[in-house]
Design a protein that fits this description.
Two copies of one chain form a homodimer. Chain A is α+β, with helices and mostly antiparallel strands and about 220 residues long. Chain A has a domain at about 5-90 and about 130-190: NADH Oxidase (3-Layer(aba) Sandwich). Chain A contains nine helices and five strands; from the N terminus they run H-H-E-H-H-E-H-H-H-E-H-E-H-E. Chain A has helices spanning about 5-15, 30-40, 60-65, 75-80, 95-105, 115-125, 130-155, 165-175, 210, and strands at about 50-55, 80-90, 160, 180-190, 210-215. In chain A, helix 2 (about 30-40) runs antiparallel to helix 7 (about 130-155). The two termini of chain A are about 30 Å apart. At the A-B interface, helix 1, helix 2, strand 1, helix 5 and helix 7 of A face helix 1, helix 2, strand 1, helix 5 and helix 7 of B.
Amino acid sequence: MNPIAITDLMAALNWRYATKSFDAGKKIPQDVMDALLDALVLAPSSFGLQPWKFIVVADPALRAKLQPDSWDQPQVTQASHLVVLAVRATLTAAQVDEWLARLAEVRGVTLESLADYRGRMTRFLDGMDDAQKFAWASRQAYIALGQLMTCAALLGVDSCPMEGLSPQAYDEALALPDSGYRTVVACALGYRSAEDKYALVPKTRYERARVVEFR
Amino acid sequence: MNPIAITDLMAALNWRYATKSFDAGKKIPQDVMDALLDALVLAPSSFGLQPWKFIVVADPALRAKLQPDSWDQPQVTQASHLVVLAVRATLTAAQVDEWLARLAEVRGVTLESLADYRGRMTRFLDGMDDAQKFAWASRQAYIALGQLMTCAALLGVDSCPMEGLSPQAYDEALALPDSGYRTVVACALGYRSAEDKYALVPKTRYERARVVEFR
């Protein structure tokens, strides 16, 4: 693996900002979008459990319907792509077994050899109620969100993370309840409009000494 | 901003894995570590509020003390660096004002011009109790965790996210309670040991069609 240059990484991180206005005419090329979906698929999650589903909303009518459920933010309809990050409404031993079956298949090992791992996962899940499980799974989705936004910037794609939405309205519009998943957060992806004044304001962060400490 | 090649991005994402055994003799060079700390500082957060602190634990005695509080995982002491991600125990209007003061300073605008933004933030925070605020802030920390692991891989640095720890024990060992922050998660950073058998097992994920849906 050849590392990229530090300067290229910093340039991308500094170029990224929460894009408020997208150029509705510019679409993300298929190979770039495929890479971003792979970045979601490859995102790390605790125990490798991947308690998530990523829904790419392409239908313009559906996106128009979602905009009022998203504090009326225009990114929902203007951006090239809208990705909704959803996670399991609950987590069960059956899901652990589904995951272990996949692991055994890919790694070519027996389920018996994964018994200890299974025990650690099920004991961990048994210690939580449904609300705690959903909170835990939601945090995992935010790892995927972080990886998605970082990768988008590196590929020259703008993004806007969107917490300001009605999860219930999204669930209903996307027909999620039957699937056992619930909306956590969304992310608009595309290209900044030349008119987005937020692209020009200086990036503002607390100074490093304010947020990083050494022990 | 020059995008990196898709192949370089995918190579890094596929190279990354949750490193179980680090080479204790290999340290991350200062310029690379500085870039990773900048990646944390530049991580996106809701409202830009950065409700976090990143604690780099360097003292070997402190890391030895933390290992039993981390399911005795050897990464805590073997990895080149251990970063603890902590967030505010609560979120207050005073913190919003601190953030707005920084924003006004960097952007060269008046506080008055940020009044609407202030109202949106304080109304959002007022709608949550302390537990909900902590859960919300914790999710933001997971964005930073995601960005950190992605950037580490791109720079050829191995990482291991660590949820399996006692936040209370970490808080006490790091003297966090007085600062108003609480431990959420940690991340070990360094270089994989040649003996880590997990480096060689095939990366396992559900198939894309299983986790990505189109609407």
